[in-house]
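Narrative of activities, Objective 1.

The group set out to show that a structural description can be obtained from nothing but a protein's sequence at a throughput compatible with the screening campaign. Below is one input-output pair from the validation batch, recorded exactly as produced.
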Amino acid sequence: MYLNRKNFILSGISATMGSLYARDWTGTNPTRYPDPDVLVLDPAFGKYRLGNASIRRVYTSPDMLWAEGPAWNGVGKYLIWSDIPNDRQLRWIQDDGRVNDFRKPSGNSNGNTFDFQGRQLSCEHGNRRVVRYERNGKLTVLADRFGGKEFNAPNDIVVHPDGGIWFTDPGYGSLMNYEGNRADTGSVMPIQKEAVYRIDPKSGTVSKVTDEIFKPNGLCFSPDYSKLYVADTGASHYPEAPREIKVWNVTAKNTLTGGKTFASMKLETEGKVLEGGADGIRCDKDGNLWSSAGWAGHGFDGVHVFEPKEGKRIGQILLPEICSNLCFGGIKRNRLFMTASQSVYSLYVETQGAHHC
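Output recorded for this entry:
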């Protein structure tokens, strides 16, 4: 059975576009299976939905202002993420679910990941740079400027098997006072044109791979690394910017070709048009793209899942908060972690993340 956007009956309660009941996130009153907030919009998503898995809120705090950049450490079996305005990183440890401050200050870090040597990489809004935490605890600055100028505010980051580090620089952190040093340029464009960059693993040279996008935000590779997906959130500052996820072909020389729209974030449902945006994105092993979604309210905010061939939306995970980012983790890499405003959620799914983080 799959749930579509028509009315369905849940325990005698009529619901539309997901559950409207007062969900108990403490777990005292469990959610009935299958979880009504995991929507199968197309039968293709049915195989990825676990019937006996529900969305769990693994952590929430009124002190957390904006959770972003989740990354799973397979060796330590823990999840880290950034609380950007509070200038800290937090860690959730799987064995007992405890949460503690992992790094403070963190340079108002946003996106995080781990390289193929297990070292943590972070994008710092406050210091406008990309850094690596070494095994001995020292910090290495990997990139802090391009073309003689500082970056705007590096945002999200991924690694390639060749050791290259790819990151986006949309400039959000430098446009907000509480996330670091504001760039007072008198323009919605911060210090320089928003772009996607690559750090060469041998020379450390930073190259611009594309600026054919308004504000590049979340990014990820396809399972075979032949494609690069990037969420464009330029509509936040550029009225003409589309709310979409773009895709490029990755060449053997680490350049991008054939940039085009992969999926639109505009959602038409029951006579309504919900226009929110994507942020963090990740692919599963089958090439489906899982995108955080927010700023459009109930029925939109959460996670949207797109199949790889035509960018068709096939599933949704509805959350009560704006979802900023996501990653696959857990022992089998089949647990989806979602950072959402003041909380972190998780859901077991019937697939695995395409990559280690």
